[in-house]
Design goal:
3 domains, alpha/beta, NAD(P)-dependent oxidoreductase, 479 residues, 4Fe-4S, single chain, globular, Fumarate Reductase Iron-sulfur Protein, Chain B, domain 2, GltD-like, FAD/NAD(P)-binding domain, 16 strands, FAD/NAD-binding_dom
């Protein structure tokens, strides 16, 4: 009977949830995709071919049991579908919204490869988890029994929160320390509301608090509280700070006012959604209204900046990227959304400097072509001589990626090993650092990456910490 509800990709075409028209959505920061109706979610889930070897699951960093919860959704068994989806994912409603499914699960769907159009996995995941919240099925992860051991987590981003959730469910006393005034990391201050509305994040934070996780906010480790003090208070420590150091352009004129960092710009925009008063927005420093905006970079952060500038009322918004569309790192879906909203992409271009006497007036642009492949196999951009021009700009946003801060120096943490890239050096199996009882997870280990990878790392690190605590208890008992 169950199989009759599946394998409908031959007769049913792929459909995404309705997308708000560009002229409407660029007026606000609300999410652009509407919710699936129950019937539509079941129909789209029924297109799954129930592969013997599910490539969607294999290419999901969390190895979510995607075919199982698609089948349950098609059968109308939504609570069971939710239980399956949350068994491997701490925050399925967040991944359903912001994962680049076109590069992960949906991009490797078997029926997509056969030309029938992928199953809309992310939209169904979002639907079943939102429905679970509506129905009250999502409950705080209170443990069956409390344990005396405590763990300190530095960083309230996705890796830290995922680890906190898993440790708390095991009965561990968990305290999360973060430099910002609100938990969530990039989920709160880095990703715009049109991709991830902030109440979605805040209700997860509230749920963790209800489960017994303690949060210490406005805590800059190394300043407000020392790293050694945190170690002394806990049986184990997890470092999940992420990477926040902006890569900047070293070119003539780069010190001019009006050239800003992507994360500074996005943080201000997201603070406004909470009703905060932000002086840098009020005085126009980090406000695109009425300005000619140029964003430099081609990743997802660049897409977020571009689409934010549109919503703030920029007169024009252009993206400079040194490769072509096929070779850009950002989501193709996000690129399409940006174009619909009025962003102009200027491919095969790179900045060589900036014009303006103290205040930016333009970007000196050099045109590029793609040459021989580099070490990663991607074609390396080469400068085309004599093709330079100046792109007028009142606000230039640098979105070239992020690098790790020098934590050993900032925290005075002697013996905390780092790689040649500045990320923390850990055992790839256990996430253990070079310091006893100190673990690390997320972007501070792997470099700037996806939220879904951070969630996986946090969950894995939590499991390793539980093993470490058990070993420590056994050693004490043996003495």
């Amino acid at each position: 009977m169950a199989t009759q509800k599946m394998l409908k990709f031959v007769t049913l075409g792929k459909e995404m949830p309705e997308k708000r028209i560009a002229s409407d959505r660029k007026q606000d920061f609300d999410e652009i995709y509407r919710e699936f109706a129950a019937q539509k979610a079941a129909e789209q889930a029924s297109r799954c071919s129930q592969c013997g070897v599910p490539y969607c699951q294999a290419h999901c960093p969390l190895h979510n049991n995607i075919p199982d919860w698609l089948r349950l959704t098609a059968e109308g068994r939504l609570r069971e579908a939710y239980e399956i989806s949350q068994a491997t994912n701490s925050f399925p409603e967040i991944c359903g919204r912001i994962c680049p499914q076109d590069r992960l699960c949906e991009g490797n769907c078997v029926i997509e490869q056969s030309g029938h159009g992928t199953v809309t996995i992310g939209s169904v995941e979002k639907y079943i988890t939102d429905k679970a919240w509506e129905q009250g099925w999502v409950q705080p992860g209170r443990p069956l029994a409390e344990r005396a051991e405590s763990v300190g987590i530095i960083g309230a981003g996705p890796a830290g929160l995922a680890a906190a959730d898993r440790l708390r469910r095991a009965g561990i006393q968990v305290t999360v320390y973060d430099r910002y005034d609100r938990a969530g990391g990039l989920l709160t201050y880095g990703i715009p509301g049109f991709k991830l509305e902030k109440p979605v994040v805040m209700r997860r934070i509230a749920q963790l608090e209800a489960a017994g996780v303690s949060f210490v906010m406005n805590c800059a480790v190394g300043e407000t509280l020392s790293f050694e003090a945190i170690r002394a208070q806990h049986a184990a420590v997890l470092i999940a700070t992420g990477v926040y150091k902006n890569r900047e352009i070293d070119a003539p004129g780069s010190e001019a006012r009006g050239i800003v960092r992507a994360l500074d710009y996005l943080t201000v925009a997201n603070r406004l959604s909470f009703g905060d008063t932000v002086p840098e927005y009020e005085d126009g420093t980090l406000n695109a209204a009425g300005k000619r905006v140029v964003v430099i970079g081609g990743g997802d952060t660049a897409m977020d900046c571009l689409r934010t500038a549109i919503r703030q009322g920029a007169t024009s918004v252009k993206c400079l990227y040194r490769r072509d569309r096929a070779n850009m790192p950002g989501s193709q879906r996000e690129t399409q959304n940006a174009e619909e909203e009025g962003v102009e992409f200027v491919w095969l271009t790179a900045p060589k400097g900036f014009t303006g006497a103290g205040v930016v007036e333009g970007v000196m642009v050099q045109k590029m072509r793609l040459g021989a492949p580099d070490a990663s196999g991607r074609q390396s951009p080469e400068v085309i001589g004599g093709a330079d021009y100046i792109e007028p700009a009142d606000l230039v946003i640098q979105a070239l990626g992020f690098e790790p801060e020098d934590l050993p120096q900032l925290w005075g943490a002697e013996g905390l090993g780092v790689t040649r890239w500045g990320t923390l050096k850990t055992d790839f199996r256990s996430h253990a650092t070079s310091l006893p009882g100190v673990f690390a997870a997320g972007d501070i280990v792997r470099g700037a990456s996806l939220v879904v990878w951070a969630i996986r790392d946090g969950r894995e690190a939590a499991d390793s910490i539980l093993g470490y605590l058990a070993q420590s208890a056994a050693a004490v008992a043996a003495e």
